[in-house]
Write a sequence for this structure.
C-alpha cells in the first residue's frame, strides 16, 4: 500500500553527523517513521540532547561516539551498534565539514586535507563499514550518502569541498553497481543550501543574503524540504530498483545558469 511506503518499524538506522544540523533532522525523521535510530558524532553532549529530543517525541534513540577520520573509532562504533542494538538496515552517511571560500591559488595543504579527510575519506570509511556489516548480516539495506549540489556543479572558491562532494557522488555510484548483488541500495542526497552551523555565519552576512537571491527558488531550503526525499531513499518506497542515483533538493541551483 502506498501509505505504508515510508514505514520503518523494525528497522535500525545509523546516522553520522547527527549531533547537529541535517543529521539531527534525519535522525528525528527516521525515528518518527518508526526506526530505532543510533546517532553518531564526536560531541557526546550534543548527541545526548538530540537523543533526549527524539525520546521525548516517543522515538527510540541512542548515541554512539564516532570520529569518521579515525578508522578505529569507526570500526568500534559499528561493532558496538551491532552488539548492543542489532544489524543496521539504514545508514545515513552525513558527517561533513565546510571551508570558508578561498581562491584555488591560496589553497593550503592543511585545509585541503581536513575537508577531504572528513567529507570523502570519512564517507568512504563509514560507507564501507556499513556495507560490510549489512552484507555479513545478509541485510537488504539502504545507504544514503549525503553529498551536495556542489558534488554536481561547481561552487565558487570551494575547490576542496566541491572535489570531496563530487567524490561522494562517484563513491555512491561505484558502490551501487557492486552492492546490487548484496541487495544493498546506495543513493546520494544532494542538498542545496540549508541553514546550519556549517554555513550560518556566511548566510547571515550581506554576501550570503546576496547569494540567496541568486537561488532560482529565491530562498534557502527548509529542513522539511529534505524529509520526504530522505525517506524515499532510506525506505522501501524506492523498491529494490532505485540505486546509484544522486537526488538534488536544491531550489533549482543545479540547473541554474552560471
Ligand atoms: N547545510 C547545508 O546547506 C548543506 C548542503 C549540502 C550538503 N550538506 C552536507 O550535510 C552534512 C551535514 O552538514 P550540516 O549542514 O548539518 O552541518 P553541521 O550542523 O555542522 O553538522 C555536521 C555534522 O558532522 C559531524 N562531524 C564533523 N566532523 C566529524 C568527524 N570527524 N567525525 C564525526 N562526525 C563529524 C558533526 O558532529 P561533531 O562535531 O559532534 O563530530 C556534525 O554533527 C555535511 O556532509 C554537509 O557537507 C550540507
Amino acid at each position: 500500500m502506498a501509505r505504508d511506503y515510508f514505514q520503518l518499524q523494525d528497522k535500525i538506522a545509523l546516522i553520522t553527523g547527527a549531533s547537529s544540523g541535517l543529521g539531527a533532522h534525519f535522525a528525528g525523521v527516521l525515528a518518527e517513521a518508526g526506526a530505532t535510530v543510533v546517532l553518531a558524532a564526536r560531541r557526546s553532549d550534543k548527541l545526548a540532547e538530540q537523543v533526549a529530543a527524539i525520546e521525548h517525541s516517543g522515538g527510540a534513540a541512542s548515541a554512539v561516539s564516532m570520529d569518521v577520520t579515525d578508522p578505529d573509532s569507526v570500526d568500534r562504533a559499528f561493532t558496538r551498534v551491532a552488539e548492543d542494538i542489532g544489524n543496521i538496515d539504514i545508514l545515513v552517511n552525513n558527517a561533513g565539514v565546510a571551508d570558508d571560500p578561498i581562491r584555488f591559488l591560496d589553497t593550503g595543504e592543511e585545509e585541503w586535507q581536513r575537508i577531504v579527510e572528513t567529507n570523502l575519506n570519512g564517507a568512504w570509511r563509514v560507507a564501507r563499514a556499513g556495507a560490510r556489516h549489512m552484507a555479513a548480516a545478509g541485510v537488504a539495506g539502504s545507504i544514503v550518502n549525503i553529498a551536495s549540489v556542489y558534488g554536481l556543479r561547481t561552487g565558487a572558491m570551494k575547490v576542496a569541498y566541491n572535489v570531496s562532494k563530487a567524490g561522494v557522488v562517484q563513491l555512491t555510484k561505484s558502490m551501487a553497481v557492486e552492492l546490487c548483488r548484496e541487495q544493498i541500495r546506495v543513493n546520494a542526497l544532494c542538498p542545496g543550501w540549508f541553514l546550519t552551523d556549517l554555513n550560518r555565519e556566511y548566510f547571515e552576512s550581506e554576501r550570503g543574503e546576496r547569494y540567496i537571491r541568486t537561488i532560482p527558488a529565491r530562498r534557502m531550503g527548509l529542513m522539511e524540504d529534505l524529509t520526504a526525499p530522505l525517506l524515499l531513499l532510506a525506505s522501501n518506497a524506492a523498491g529494490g530498483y532505485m540505486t546509484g542515483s544522486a537526488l538534488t533538493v536544491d531550489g533549482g541551483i543545479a540547473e541554474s545558469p552560471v
